[in-house]
Each structure stands twice: as C-alpha cells, then as structure tokens.
Amino acid sequence: MEQYIIKGGLPLKGEVSIGGAKNAALGILAAAIMTDETVTIENVPNVRDTRVLLQAIEGIGAKVKYVYNNSVQINGGSICDKNVDYEYIKKIRASYYLLGALLGKYRESHVALPGGCNIGSRPIDQHIKGFRALGAEVDIAHGMICTKAEKLTGSHIYFDVVSVGATINLMMAACMAEGDTILENAAKEPHIVDVANFLNAMGANIKGAGTDVIRIKGVSRLHGTTYSIIPDQIEAGTFMFASAATGGDVVVKDVIPKHLESLSAKLIEVGCQVIEGDDWVRVIGAKELKCTNVKTLPYPGFPTDMQPQMSVVLALAKGSSMVTESIFENRFKYVDELNRMGGRIKVEGNTAYIEGVEVLTGAQLAAPDLRAGAALVIAALAADGVSEIEDIEYIQRGYEDFERKLQGLGAVIERTDSEREAQKFKLKIG
Ligand code: UD1
Q1: CA 417 – CA 398 distance, rounded (Å)
Q2: Of 162, 198, 287, 429, which one has the greatest count of Cβ atoms within 10 A?
Q3: Average pLDDT over residues 392-409
Q4: Ligand 1 contact via 126 beta carbon (within 6 Å)
Q5: pLDDT score recorded for residue 120
Q6: Judging by beta carbons within 10 Å of its beta carbon (0-12, 13-18, 19+), is residue 140 exposed, middle or buried?
Q7: Does 161 contact ligand 1 (Cβ within 6 A)?
Q8: Phi and psi torsions of 129, nearest 5°
Q9: Residue 422 CA to chain centroid, in angstroms?
Q10: Rounded distance, CA 283 to CA 119, Å?
C-alpha cells in the first residue's frame, strides 16, 4: 500500500512549475471526441483522473495516443459505442462529460449514473434539465442515464444552481444543436472558459464563457485542432498555501495570476507577502500567521477545492478563524485528522471554527479525498516530527509528480509502497 512519509518543520523554498488544469482537461478530453478529425491536446496533466477518462474514451472506440508525457492525440472518428460503463464512472465522476459530448455529436449517449461521493451528495438534475430543454429524452434505468434525440434544438436554459459540470455538459451538447442556446446562471470558472475556447478552436460558436450568460450558435460539424490547456489554479494554490503554512518562500511558476486572486487575497490577509509577475506568483510566509474568515463560493469566489488547504494555514494562525463551506456539505472530513495532529477545530453544520495553535505534530493519517489529502500533506510538512499518510491514491487523482515537486522545494517527503521501504526511509531521516 502506497503512503507518504513526511518529516515536517522545514520551510519550503525555491521554484515549482505548475501543470495543466485537471478540471479543464476532463472537459476538453471529452469534447475532443466531438469531431471525426484528429485533435492534439497539449499540457494535459498526467494524473489518474485524466488517464481514466482517456481509457473511457478508448473504451467507446476512439483512438488515443500519448505523443509525449503531457500531449495527447484523440481521434473520435472510430467511435462504435455510445455506452460508457460503470467501471469508469465509479473511478471518475467526470466521465459524465461524455453524456453531453456524445449527445451533441451522435444525438445519443448512455453513461452509468455517478453515485454519491465522499465530499457529499452530488445531484445532476441541472445537466438533465438542460439536455431535456434541448429536446433530448433522458431516462434513468438500471443505473444508467440514457439520452436520445431525433433532433437537438437550441433553447434558453436557466440553471437553478451554479454548476461547473452542467455548464460544460450543456456547452458541449448545445454547440452542435440546431439554432441558438442561451445558458443563464452559468459557472464562470477559468476551466469553463478553457473548454469554450477549445470548442471554438474546433469550429463551435460560443460567446460569453467566463460570464454568467453564455450564448451558443449551433454548428453542424466540428474539426480537428491543436490546443494547450491552461495552468491548474488548484495545484498552484496548493503550493502557495504550502509555502504559507511552512513559513516558506516559493515561486509558483507557469500560472495565470489573475486566476489566483481570491487565494492571494486570503494569503495577504493572514500576513503573507504575495508578489505577482506575468506568469508567476511568489508567496513569502509570515513571521506569525493571522486569523481570518473564509467562505467558499463559485468563481471568482474562494474555491471549495482550496478550502481544506486554507484550514491548515488557519490551524496555525494566531486567534480564531471561521471557514464556511457553501458548495459541498461533507468537505470537513480532514478535520479529525488535523485535530489528531494537535489542531483545535470544531465543525458545526457547514462551518469549521478554528482556534490557531503554535505547532502541529506529526501523526499517522489517512487522506479522505483528493484536496483534503493535499491539505494533510501541507499539515505534515508544517508539523513537528514525522507523519505517515495513507490512501494517497486520492491525491494522485489530481497532482502530477506531487512528491517530486515538493522535494524540489526542500521538503523531506517520500512515496513508499512497502513497510520495509517506509522503515528504511524513516531510519534515514531519523
Ligand atoms: C466541479 C469540479 C470540482 C469542484 C466543483 C465546484 C470538475 C471535474 N470538478 O465539480 O473539483 O469542487 O466543480 O467548483 O470540474 N449541483 C446540483 N445539481 C446539478 C449539479 C450540481 O444541485 O445538476 C450542485 C452540487 O451538489 C454542488 C454545486 O451544485 O453543491 C456545485 O457543483 P458543480 O459545480 O456541478 O460541481 P462539479 O462539476 O461536480
């Protein structure tokens, strides 16, 4: 069983380069099957989620070729099956992007229904409502969602909640519908803009992505293109917060600083220095971190995917902080683990009340989900002593070369996959 062994207490120092955005990649890889021509996608993060989605894409008959580590060619001309089975969807929810992509291209899709997930219940009613508004029949039976349409017709769709997934799925389906579609109350995340730019590069006509009203003129076919994915806002944020928690000095390179503004603002509030360049952000830790309050919100608000990492910083800040989670109801599972490290955090409803402590101490930990897992790594890097983190396959879903990048910043971290290796590393680090 793989685990991380971490010896904490050292400030992170140096430069780290950020890869392509996982959540943009998931939308873009699915959208790439919508043409019969070859599409080349660059800056694809080589993480478990993208690898599983590529397997699902191959599973329906498309051709997938890794040109080199972060560049992938997809040809959807040979798709013979419009069924995406549970094997993929249970590993990665975002396989449901193939619902919108296949529906747009073939007027038909069958995808296993995604189940609950360890950050809370995640309904897909807005996706279904949107597909129906375009004229598709949507049935749920035997654990599958099936969409079918004689004809897809543009429509005016008002989302009841701001949903990244529904916005992307509907952009894909509507861009090959007949006529005009307006998506209102759309999500505005940078990866929505990236998926829209990619579809436009394939010949779609989508305007307004990045605002809450997206206007789409349907086109009858899409063509091949070459496209490079934007940098990952959450990977960048994770390293920025790791610098803050360890009192470090880290330059996070190859990013779009504008996408990181809500994170930079919070780091400045807690006393860190944040210096921005054209494509880099430098975070210098504070002598003493200050408390503050945070509430997660859709972009441009503070991202829910950075909430656990923020809590780690606040667990080490002087005074009382409040962290309110307004997107997913079950995103505080890491709190018990932080408290086992000496944290003083109490959760009531959707709010964590944090009393800052001077030090956290190393402990045996288990990653409850992707971002909470990354947060525990940050906590372990900041803590006194050695921590062992299990269930790191969650972390590998979304971070490429995580431990290697941290080692490059001076962190004492090793991924081990046997008790013997773990013991050997622990002896080495004392
Ligand atoms: C995406 C991200 C995830 C991030 C989340 C919020 C991907 C692959 N994942 O997830 O990392 O944490 O955005 O930024 O991009 N909702 C409904 N009905 C729906 C759809 C959503 O009620 O049909 C609710 C959800 O329960 C949640 C909120 O809307 O409370 C936001 O969810 P959504 O933006 O759809 O998240 P995902 O796309 O699943």
Answers
A1: 19
A2: 198
A3: 96
A4: yes
A5: 63
A6: exposed
A7: yes
A8: -60, -40
A9: 29
A10: 29
239 alpha carbon, distance to own chain's centre: 14
Helix (H, G, I), strand (E, B) or coil at 321: strand
Task: Residue 362: name the closest of 322, 306, 412 by CA.
Answer: 412
Which residues of 131-286 form beta strands (DSSP E)? 137-141, 144-148, 156-158, 180-184, 205-207, 213-217, 226-228, 249-253, 273-276, 280-284
Could you tell me if 293 and 270 are in contact, meaning their C-beta atoms sit under 8 angstroms apart? no
The DSSP output letter for 361 is B
Within 10 A of 129 (CB to CB), how many other CB atoms are there? Answer: 16
Phi–psi pair at 15, nearest 5 degrees: -120, 145
Question: For 12, which DSSP code?
Answer: -
Q: Within a 10 A sphere around the Cβ of 277, how many other Cβ atoms?
A: 11
Ligand 1: residue whose CA is nearest its atom 30: 327
Q: Is the CB of 116 under 6 A from ligand 1?
A: no
Q: Is 291 a catalytic residue?
A: no
Whole-number Å distance between alpha carbons of 48 and 52: 6
Which domains are delineated in the chain? 3-19+231-429 (3.65.10.10), 22-228 (3.65.10.10)
CA of 319 to the centre of ligand 1 (A): 32
Average pLDDT over residues 275-283: 98
pTM above 0.85, yes or no: yes
What is the pLDDT confidence band of residue 123, given thresholds at 50, 70 and 90? confident
Residues of the chain with pLDDT > 70: what percent? 98
C-alpha–C-alpha distance, residues 428 and 86, integer Å: 43
